[in-house]
Write a structure and sequence with these properties.
Layout lengths: L3 H8 L3 E2 L10 E3 L5 E7 L4 E5 L4 E8 L2 E9 L5 E11 L2 E10 L3 E9 L6 E2 L1 E8 L2 E13 L6 E10 L6 E4 H10 L6 E11 L8 E9 L1
Parallel strand pairs: 9-13
Antiparallel strand pairs: 1-10, 2-3, 3-6, 4-5, 5-16, 6-15, 7-14, 7-16, 8-9, 8-15, 11-12, 12-13
EC number: 3.2.1.8
Keywords: Carbohydrate metabolism, Glycosidase, Hydrolase, Polysaccharide degradation, Signal, Xylan degradation
Catalytic activity: Endohydrolysis of (1->4)-beta-D-xylosidic linkages in xylans
Amino acid sequence: MVQISSFLVALGLLQAGLGAPQPDAKGVQGRQGYYFQNWSEGGSNIRCSNGQGGSFSANWNSRGGFVCGKGWSGGGARTIKYSGTYNATGPGYLAVYGWTRNPLIEYYILESYADLAPNEPWTSKGNFTIDEGTFEVFTSTRVNKPSIEGTRTFQQYWSVRSEKRVGGTVTTQKHFDEWAKRGMRLGRHDYVVMAVEGYTATGGSGSAGSASITLG
């Protein structure tokens, strides 16, 4: 199996992704207790829709960045079951996405993706295999970028699935445990969502696609 980091090096893309801004600007407590995330900047033709229960959908064709998703305020260890569709071109992800405070960490568990063409350097921390799949771990640093605490410098943690999928179970604690083995400490959990994200890579084009996701 070719490691994802080797693939990125071959493409000259070993850089990290878009950081999301303050959730207060894009997150609301949605239907049936779910937290609904809807944020975009610098783009057009982005539609993020809050469906019934644990469902949401997104359609986009944009040069800007966006995050559209649904989950839970409070975050933390969760077993997330989801199903749906995800079809995209350009830079973007389908991922479990969340934040912690003290330390301030933005984290991703990538389930599927179009182009991995991020905007800061990634550092590989190796691979791990659990019953839910094989992943490569990365870290990256955002300098003076928007966060849930305003403009800050903070780390990003990434688990990137080797074989992409749309639908299944994500046990976040299994990733937290693997990150901890690598010295990647988390803080107090703020929120976590199953999210679709798109953005524009440095010097590149935007993204386009559609997604319809339901939390189980």
